[in-house]
């Protein structure tokens, strides 16, 4: 895995791939809501005093752009939050974390990163009907219907993030699911078919 500086140096090959902190190879570099300048929540965000039991993977059905920069990851986080606040009338971004096409991770719902670091509780999300009180929601930038394939940078960092979330919360690698398992939706597109591979790679990352 590349450190942040090394990954930037290699950006012409795989922009944004694996921005891991040197102190802990399992801990990815996650930009907090403060880092990307999120709007304040429109109300109180619930904190659940227990650990989640699974992860649910989503895609945001945004453009499959070629801008793999950190700035684009922040712009995407703003786009998702604006959609959830202004159109859905939710208290905040519904997802706990977002993974950009360039492999940058942003905190979605306020408090998610702090709770993850503690490993004992998590914030109530708004990402999957019937699962918000049990699952961490991770959304990938882009639309992955009709055969679209995630960029390598996004995939690699999704594996790293899922491995870290599983490690912090004691979630088995087998408990990675797709949104469509819990309702009438096509989300997360091709990511759903890639779940067996994701589970395998997350298990391998944890073992390493």
What this model shows, in words?
With 208 residues, this protein is of the alpha/beta class. The protein has one domain (50-206): Lysozyme-like (3-Layer(aba) Sandwich). It has helices spanning 4-9, 70-87, 112-118, 152-169, 190-193, 195-207; strands at residues 30-31, 47-48, 54-59, 97-99, 105-107, 122-123, 135-140, 176-178. Strand 4 (97-99) and strand 5 (105-107) form a beta hairpin. The termini are close together. One of its GO terms (biological process) is peptidoglycan catabolic process. InterPro entries: Amidase/PGRP_sf, Amidase_domain, PGRP, PGRP_domain_met/bac. This is N-acetylmuramoyl-L-alanine amidase.
Topology, please?
Elements: H1 4-9, E1 30-31, E2 47-48, E3 54-59, H2 70-87, E4 97-99, E5 105-107, H3 112-118, E6 122-123, E7 135-140, H4 152-169, E8 176-178, H5 190-193, H6 195-207
Parallel strand pairs: 1-5, 3-7, 3-8, 4-7
Antiparallel strand pairs: 2-6, 4-5
Helix pairs in contact: 4-6
């Amino acid at each position: 895995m590349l450190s942040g500086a090394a990954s930037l140096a290699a950006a012409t090959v795989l922009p944004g791939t694996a921005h891991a902190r040197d102190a802990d190879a399992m801990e990815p570099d996650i930009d907090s809501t403060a880092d990307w300048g999120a709007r304040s929540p429109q109300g109180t965000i619930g904190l659940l005093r227990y650990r989640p039991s699974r992860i649910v993977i989503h895609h945001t059905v945004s453009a499959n752009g070629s801008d793999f920069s950190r700035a684009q990851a922040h712009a995407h986080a703003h786009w998702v939050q604006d959609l959830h606040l202004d159109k859905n009338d939710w208290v905040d971004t519904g997802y706990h974390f977002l993974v950009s096409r360039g492999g940058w991770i942003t905190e979605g719902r306020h408090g998610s990163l702090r709770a993850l670091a503690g490993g004992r509780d998590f914030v109530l999300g708004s990402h999957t009907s019937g699962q918000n009180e049990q699952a961490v929601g991770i959304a990938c930038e882009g639309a992955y219907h009709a055969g679209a394939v995630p960029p390598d940078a996004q995939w690699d960092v999704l594996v790293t993030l899922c491995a870290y979330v599983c490690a912090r919360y004691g979630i088995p690698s087998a408990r990675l699911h797709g949104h469509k398992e819990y309702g009438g939706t096509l989300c997360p597109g091709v990511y759903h078919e890639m779940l067996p591979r994701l589970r395998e790679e997350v298990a391998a990352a944890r073992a390493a």
